[in-house]
């Protein structure tokens, strides 16, 4: 997975009925765009994200 600051990350719900979460990548802490990412989610909280298979990064240029 590769990301840059300003990209959006989507975390898809893992169980039926759980909501998808979206957030803006504020900081890339891995080398060459690799995780972990510091993310600000739509509800305002920030957290360090180590994306799994239920995540995707949407480039800000898309």
Summary, kept brief:
The chain is an all-beta fold and 62 residues long. Helix content is 0%, strand content 40%. This is DUF1918 domain-containing protein.
Strands side by side in the biggest sheet: 4-3-2-1-5
Rg over CA atoms, rounded to whole Å, is 11 Å
- Residue-averaged pLDDT: 91
Shape: globular
Segments where pLDDT lies below 50 for 5+ residues? Answer: none
Organism: Amycolatopsis orientalis (Nocardia orientalis)
Protein name: DUF1918 domain-containing protein
InterPro entries: DUF1918 (IPR015035)
Pfam family, one: DUF1918
Verbal overview:
This protein has one domain (7-58). It is globular. It has strands spanning 8-11, 21-28, 37-41, 46-49, 55-58. With 62 residues, it is an all-beta fold. The chain has no helices and five strands. The mean pLDDT is 91. A five-stranded antiparallel sheet has the order 4-3-2-1-5, with no helix packed on it.
């Amino acid at each position: 997975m590769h990301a840059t600051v300003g990209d959006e990350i989507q975390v898809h719900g893992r169980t039926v009925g759980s909501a998808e979460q979206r957030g803006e990548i504020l900081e890339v802490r891995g080398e060459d765009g690799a995780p972990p990412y510091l993310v600000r989610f739509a509800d305002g909280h920030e957290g360090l994200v180590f994306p799994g298979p239920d995540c995707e990064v949407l480039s800000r240029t898309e």
